[in-house]
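Lab notebook, bench 4. The sequencing result for the construct came back, and we need a structural model before the next group meeting so we can plan mutations. Quick request posted to the team channel:

Model the 3D structure of this chain.
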Amino acid sequence: MTDGVAVRGESSRTVATVLVVDDEAFIRLFLSELLLDAGLRVVEASDADEAVAILAGLGSIDLVLTDLNMPGSINGLGLARFVRANRPETKVVFLSSEGLDPSLKRWGDAFLSKPCDCGKIVRTIDEVLAVA
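Done. Here's the predicted structure in token form:
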């Protein structure tokens, strides 16, 4: 537990931390388990508002994996804008059933379409994290 937020996959070695943001609990759990199996630390949020609160409180989030359409006061694009403005070192990967809007490239480091192959999700996150 870090600052009241459950962090899954904690270990003594340094690993990247991914914030998984999706309003669909099944998808969020599936993605979290996939990333845990890949050796990453995972924090979960059910919407962008909760993600903003987590980002404001946790020191180290290396990457945000977010859906675009979610309930709440902001959506995934609004979350990406918050990340760019307040935590520019944090990477953003969009995972959405919507097609890629060219304007998203400004706010995210990668875009994946749902449904997406598990291996591609892990590879994309690894590639984005590898870029300094």
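The radius of gyration is 13 Å.
Will bring this to the meeting.
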